[in-house]
Write a structure and sequence with these properties.
There is one protein chain. 34% of the residues lie in helices and 20% in strands. With 279 residues, it is of the alpha/beta class. The protein folds into two domains: 104 residues, 60s Ribosomal Protein L30, Chain: A (2-Layer Sandwich), CATH 3.30.1330; 159 residues, SPOUT methyltransferase, trefoil knot domain (Alpha/beta knot, 3-Layer(aba) Sandwich), CATH 3.40.1280.10. Helix 4 links the parallel strand 3 and strand 4. Helix 1 packs parallel to helix 5. The model has no long low-confidence stretch (mean pLDDT 95). It binds S-adenosylmethionine. S-adenosylmethionine binds next to helix 10.
Length: 279
Amino acid sequence: MTSSNAPRRTGAVKQITSHSNPLIKEIKGLLTQRKHRTQAGLFVAEGLKLATDALEAGWDVHYLALGPDMRDNPVAQKAAATAKARGALILEVNTAILSAMTRKDNPQMVVGVYEQRISDLRNLDPHAQTVLVALDRVRDPGNLGTIIRTVDAVGASGVVLVGDCTDPFAVETVRATMGSLFHVPLYKATRQDLKDLIVRWPGTVAATHLKGSVDYRTPDYTEPTLLVMGNEQQGLEQDLADACKTLIRIPQVGQADSLNLAVATGISLYEIRRKHLAL
Ligand code: SAM
């Protein structure tokens, strides 16, 4: 699992009133630059709900910036106390600084900086999975965030990022996950890693494909199931499609060439997990 390169901090509270404070610049850099996030092993998540999700799930928090509205908010104060006890630096800032930090006119009143968590696929135990979703070169942060949220909703067990993917820790992705990022394990993999996993996978392997000959509602999905999804523009790489035992297709009528990747993933996941999902 990746971990942060940033120095550990001992819990403290600091008031910041200047936009040019180096910590504010650092958080802005984490929000806007992938290179900066990767080097530091950190990322930014906005909002009190995400802060409480992250803390409840035991994620390491480095900074928690609180705006003026949060000083009397008991949930925010509890989150700040927990974060501080775990070594985070609590930053008390004004709305203008939060705006500058997040580049938004109406910023969230809580902004957290957390340690990234992503594991190597080669360390995954297939027997411990329900449904694992592998995404071949996913490029759109909104799609990735929506998929992570849906994986969480159906009780699937993780998301594999195969090849050159969009950054799961980009702020747009994090926003789209609505907190599910803190509950869904992420793995990174090369195409070869995924092909190796397919060979040793103990349950159903199904790839979605526009040329698939199997209606996605017909397989008897055996858990653990590995669901493989293609890239938004190019679909699934041919060698990956060849490696998968079953190519499933979601029927379409009308003129659309294909479904949006996140929609196709959601439809497939609900079918695969159907017998586990009841109101
Ligand atoms: N032009 C691409 C192609 O030829 O595959 C379209 C890719 S589509 C926008 C992105 C991914 O969503 C596909 O690779 C596949 O995994 C999934 N997908 C979209 N519509 C689908 C459908 N009707 N049946 C099966 N999978 C679908």
